[in-house]
Amino acid sequence: MSKQRTLRIECGKPNQVIYVLGTVLNIDIYKPAPLGSQSFEVRCSPGVKCSISDLHNITVAADDAKRWTLNNGTLLVVTMEKISNDLNDNKVTIIFYGDKLDKPIDKIILQLTAVYISLDVDADRDGKVEKNNPNKGSWKWGPNGHGAVLLVNSDKEAHTTAKYDRSDDTVPIFEDLADMSQMILRTEGPKFLLPDYKLQLYISASDGKKVQVFRHDLTKMTKVLGTTMLSSVMDYTKGNNEYNFFIEGLTFPDEAIGSLVAFNLSLLEPMIVGYAPIFTEHVVFCLAPWIMTPNTLAPQEVFVCSVRDNATFLKEFTAVVEKAKCKLTVCNEDVNRNDRWIQDEIEFGYSEAPHKTFPVVFDSPRNLGLEMFPYKKLLGPDFGHVTRTSDQRSGLDSFGNLEVSPPVTVNGKEYPMGRIIIGNAFPNISDRKMTKAVRDFLYAQTVQPLIELFSDWLFVGHVDEFLTFVPAPDRKGFRLLLASPDACCKLFMKLQQEGHGEAQMFESENINAKPVKINEILSNEKLRKDNAYVQRCVDWNRDVLKKELGLDEEDIIDIPMLFKIEYLQRAGAFFPDMVNMIVLGKYLGIPKPFGPLINGECPLESAVRSALEPLGLDCNFINDFASYHLHLGEVHCGSNVLRKPFAFKWWNMEI
Amino acid sequence: MSKQRTLRIECGKPNQVIYVLGTVLNIDIYKPAPLGSQSFEVRCSPGVKCSISDLHNITVAADDAKRWTLNNGTLLVVTMEKISNDLNDNKVTIIFYGDKLDKPIDKIILQLTAVYISLDVDADRDGKVEKNNPNKGSWKWGPNGHGAVLLVNSDKEAHTTAKYDRSDDTVPIFEDLADMSQMILRTEGPKFLLPDYKLQLYISASDGKKVQVFRHDLTKMTKVLGTTMLSSVMDYTKGNNEYNFFIEGLTFPDEAIGSLVAFNLSLLEPMIVGYAPIFTEHVVFCLAPWIMTPNTLAPQEVFVCSVRDNATFLKEFTAVVEKAKCKLTVCNEDVNRNDRWIQDEIEFGYSEAPHKTFPVVFDSPRNLGLEMFPYKKLLGPDFGHVTRTSDQRSGLDSFGNLEVSPPVTVNGKEYPMGRIIIGNAFPNISDRKMTKAVRDFLYAQTVQPLIELFSDWLFVGHVDEFLTFVPAPDRKGFRLLLASPDACCKLFMKLQQEGHGEAQMFESENINAKPVKINEILSNEKLRKDNAYVQRCVDWNRDVLKKELGLDEEDIIDIPMLFKIEYLQRAGAFFPDMVNMIVLGKYLGIPKPFGPLINGECPLESAVRSALEPLGLDCNFINDFASYHLHLGEVHCGSNVLRKPFAFKWWNMEI
pTM here? Predict the structure, then answer.
């Protein structure tokens, strides 16, 4: 729709008008008509299109040969299609007649200068700023959508004291421009313009908190918009010009922070009191969300901690990472301060714009020994960092409690980047919950809609204690693995029936644990009841996951596992928790369960192998007993994986 | 969709199951099958429906005559349709066979008790709580929508010290129940149930801030849910029962406060560790918004202040109110403390649920002399009150700057309750703006989507200084009146041309002002330029209103008016501002402009009459010169009108 502009004119006065291409001038010609006027004629230069709209909204092309009756409400509607070569080079003359049809009473002359003004962005998301995209003023999701994208400048290109590149008022280093989105103000028109007109670029106060804008001249880079600078005024003296702006996002979408940012441009006409805007347009950007990467995406780099007592574990773990041909980065004790839970401290993800993509680590509010690790070892050139803090954090804020499913389609609704999964107290009533700051942040990213599971039944309370996803060549491209006391009991009962009741768990020389017989486990009434309860809790989640991820029973694999209720009436692993594995493509690093040995084989490991190997997966059991399991975590809790981004672009999602 | 429940069973154990009508039990029968099982039979009581789902998700009805091959993944799917008469009165027997087809190896017996549990609300919005509405768990806007409605208990039935009825933990007086929404928990089933089952009603912490729930027993009313009570557990001992709850909203929708509230119900089964939920459902309420009433709605009661110097005004004003047959309430000086701007202190509206509707006054953060008026004179039985405060308030937070349009349809989109109109600084850059607290509140009400106009060019800064709406029998049912310097200049020029240039404004004995000639006005270059600027500002708003309300030129009437730029480079009325009128049905109370008298008639008044009287409107000019105009306000600023609610129900709006 063209922009309408009401224009007032006067008889006998010079009426100089700057006309912006694409607008429509509505001019009341009844009010300014001289006394006694009864009809009028309109004459235009060839570059001007005029039409008459009367009280009944009947619009007809104005015609030199024709005279029109003047009525209260008669409007002259003026448009132009070509840029003026010179100031006032187009003209509209309105001639008024009274009784005498051959003698004009008076006339009004409109001197028009047509200019082109366009604030341009990459609204078609191809990495280039096109000219005057008709959709630049709005955001639309989906493959047929439009709207420009803004990256949060969450990385740190330069070795300055600033925390992030966006932390100060300058562009720290030339490379940083590549992280920003470009915006161009293009003008075309005659060489000389009317004096004292201005161009004003401005944002709302709430948007001002989200962005910082730099203007790039040949010789310098100047901050022109930001938190305390909501407006930037430029002289409009040259008809042809190009102003280059670079924009960085200051904050990821969050509860009180919408993801859209609008930039307004006005052409200001000098008035007795300051300036009056005579043309306004706006462009819209969407802040790129933080995106999580499920286990089905290719691993790029694996992280693990070296602590006082995990040398043996590290050796076995390294072997699996090498087998998967991944880069391994070991975080040493000077940085981890004997905190081995690198899964809990951070979650790797990324942020993407058509012009640039880089990994962004989400740093949990947990902040124990590993607190400084993401700042010291991750944040850097093209490696972003975002965090949320809270005074009311609990164990549920550790990111072992933050996972993401592979892509799914549920009742026809597509989740092309999967769904974020967190654990919470529901359907229990408990004070323990993921803190609002983290939850709100996750919800606000929008592209991986959350599923909230019930994890409060666990002492540690993390979803990675009872579920994981592994890639699969068939069906939906993955399987959901769930820890299953039921499967374990059934397996042990079968072994008992087969005469292996005296076989013992924890018999290995490699661990320091009291062996326990299958018969003892099966006759332990407390353990049986504990696990019936745990199974009920896992089943609750199973039903939620089936519904929310659109899974069939065949998409789920039960991994034998036992829990015990000890701490604060909550559950912990009875033996190393096999679902708490690391997934590196087809290579799995699984906590070694140290089950009973039957003919030299562990039936727990065999059960896992026989369930997963047909999917092309390579099961590697790692001894994490002393160094992780006894500290209430396992392989997954003690490692982390940076993965490749999705090929799918988030803005192509239908929301 | 039926609720799926994964159920685990064991051979040789009693398997007593409480089945809730409407759920589907999924039972893995492969895992619990005894060693050597190869096939199975299923036998059910007549009340039980069983089917078999195998790995390939092929579901067939279980048939007594048929034996099934047992496969890994074979599920037994169980549903029931009738409530049990006695505990365990339904049975499913699964018989396992090995090699010998005539000799069962073992069997599992499931003892089923079917119960009905339903948390019920008025989801069809007819004022009555129906039984188990299938849509009770969600909210849908529109005439074909559904979802229960909750009123904010913003009134004050009882003469207690509490600020509002909702302010304490009790139901102050029986009548207060009528303001609340009812919720009923209905259960049906056998007289005796398994011991120790519980029913739990609970809400999330964020919803807990929005509501308070009372349980009504025959003899008492007990608070069971609220800000610090997120859960209420009841014994589930009787099969047939009805629990009555009454719910009051604690807060209107606002930026950080979504309008939906969910109540969850769980059936809890006793476990070794507390309880496990085996059935959950939820119902959803929407908090009723605060709704504004445009000038086209019938007036019910008119409010005005009596102050030291407005006796003459009051007399003329009263006459108009009597003519319109409205109740008039005069706020006296002991309450208004010489503050006459009752339009600025409050805005009347209402809140509506299917079971109850009452007026609610929105109290501005302005809080000058009239600060206590809404508490002392308005808040009471079935008269609600809501306010927002801010430390950063400005003149734009006075409610002369808060208006609402009549219902409109814009490009096919219906606004059946009109659109809220506020004034702001855009397209100017200025620190002065409506405070976030008020703006957020208005946006959050949703049903009258906002239009933000440019009012910062005015010294006082209110939209009612340049616009109003009057009812009309034709077109869209109303006209938009806009203050027009252009119309006034044209009128004066015409008078000058007709030889009345020496006629004077302000010549009346009833006012104490220096007369000024039409010739003087027209030759005052500063005044001319001031008004050219003002016209530009009004035109900006005209173009916005045409677009946002879908108006044609013919829907707009220009009311002659002049402004002067004096205070802080901003505009004020040069003579009493006629658009700042009070609209009482067809009766208008208009500031008397004290224009020049030509043949005993004021051409300004005549222009207004001739524009409005053809619409059936009755123009009454009131002298507000000394008592309002010279204090920078007029009739509208000094009065307020309580109007009838819309016949249209807000939940029928398509959003």
Answer: 0.84
